[in-house]
Write a structure and sequence with these properties.
With 260 residues, the protein is of the alpha/beta class. The protein has ten helices and twelve strands. The chain has a six-stranded mixed beta sheet. It has a six-stranded parallel beta sheet with strand order 9-8-7-10-11-12, sandwiched between helices. The model has no long low-confidence stretch (mean pLDDT 95). InterPro entries: Aminoacid_DH-like_N_sf, NAD(P)-bd_dom_sf, Shikimate_DH, Shikimate_DH-bd_N, Shikimate_DH_fam, Shikm_DH/Glu-tRNA_Rdtase.
Length: 260
Amino acid sequence: MKIFAVIGDPIMHSKSPRMHNNALQVLKKDAVYTRYHLKDKTRLREIIRKIDGANITIPFKEEACDIADFKDESVTHIGSANTLLNINSKIYAYNTDYLGFLKAIENFYPIENALVLGAGGTAKALAYALKTKNIKVTIANRSSFRFENLTNYSCFLYEQLDLNEKFDLIVNTTSAGLYDEKLPCEENILKNIFQKAKFAFDVIYGKNTSFLKLARKNNLEVKDGVQMLLWQGVFAFEIFLECQKPKEIFKAMEMALKLP
């Protein structure tokens, strides 16, 4: 029996075990999917080598890239990974976040210019996704220390943003709103940006965040992260088990999320 897990801190909120285990059952795969609460990032390699693979969530996506023996093209460009595979004690790194995001925003069209809020591993993945579609990307964050690894994008502190610039899509990759009613940046900054935008996307799923509420007030078409969650899970499942049945996997995972 193969063993897979989702690893992060915090981790109890993750829906990945529910999604993957239902897909494993429906597709009759001899495997189990659990969760692991990791506190010390230096133990990530050790944990991965004890199982067959894992999905990596906050705050270990960049560490997942660093420990990999082999990286696919997206991981090399992004600098973070959310899917790790252990084959003969060698760690293979992939990024399915960016693929899941592109599936989630398929009906957001047209997009020429996008603003990504946050500069962590998820932000890097989504910025890369947008760039693969020839969309101009600007990244904004509350601090600048993460910008040194984002040389392919225009990067600004929130207060430095040009509020006259028009962004078609605004993407929140920060944790603001996950456990509170906070916004990723000052409300007046977001209001100015939203007034010229068309679409808003929040990677947080299952909650009507303050970011999404404000976007709706400004008549934007909005989405939370549930579709991205599902599709990144589908692509990870395919990698884990070499199972190319995206429609069946998606249906099983979506069904699991709807269960009480």
